[in-house]
Design goal:
Blueprint lengths: L1 H26 L2 E10 L2 E9 L4 H8 L4 E11 L8 E15 L4 E8 L2 E8 L2 H9 E9 L9 E14 L3 E6 L3 E2 L10
Length: about 190
């Protein structure tokens, strides 16, 4: 009788865990939109990250701690008749936000491969959230003359602090890689 109860309880717990797994998976951060556009030799990017702005991250920003989201971006050429695609180049785009309690402003700093890209300040938290998780017209690559120009695409993932393990070990969260649309680069002769 006791074994049957334990087996039934174990089975019930496994079923509950399995049922909650898809719900937890849907709440994980992921890159919702990723669109690449070629203008001449330049490749511009538009993206949106969903599920990253949670109450813990907002509390961290409000406390004045620097909060950053790093985006890893890769440029590939698709090989139709091969097992893998050629990686042409990669970039690292980073958006960091710090709250300044003296001026009561949020300072937003953007870098591309460690080089300053933009720095601005705002008092609007909604603007901070929008700038952390989305961007329009970000110039990420300039395709050279000797590099492939056809059947290109981008892959992107986001990496950010998600919390602590055992309250002392920082843990990074990563989104799965997201693939963009295919595009061709046209250079003027």
């Amino acid at each position: 009788m006791r074994r049957g109860f334990r087996a039934g309880l174990c089975l019930l717990l496994c079923a509950l865990f399995a049922a909650s797994a898809p719900a937890q998976e849907s709440r994980k951060p992921r890159i919702e939109t990723l669109h690449a556009e070629a203008r001449g030799p330049d490749v511009f990017l538009r993206f949106r990250l969903d599920g990253a702005l949670n109450p813990e991250l907002a509390t961290k920003i409000e406390a004045g701690l620097e909060t950053a989201i790093r985006y890893d971006i890769r440029l590939y050429r698709h090989n139709a008749h091969w097992f893998w695609d050629d990686r042409i180049d990669s970039r690292r785009y980073r958006v960091a936000v710090t709250y300044d309690p003296v001026t009561r402003e949020y300072v937003i700093a953007e870098t591309l491969d460690g080089k300053p890209l933009a720095r601005s300040s705002t008092r609007d938290f909604a603007e901070v959230g929008r700038r952390l998780v989305s961007r329009e017209n970000l110039l990420v690559f300039r395709v050279g003359e000797s590099e492939p120009h056809t059947n290109l695409y981008l892959e992107m993932r986001a990496v950010f602090d998600s919390g602590y393990l055992f309250t002392i070990i920082p843990v990074d969260a990563r989104t799965p890689w997201k693939e963009s649309n295919r595009f061709d680069v046209r250079t003027s002769p």
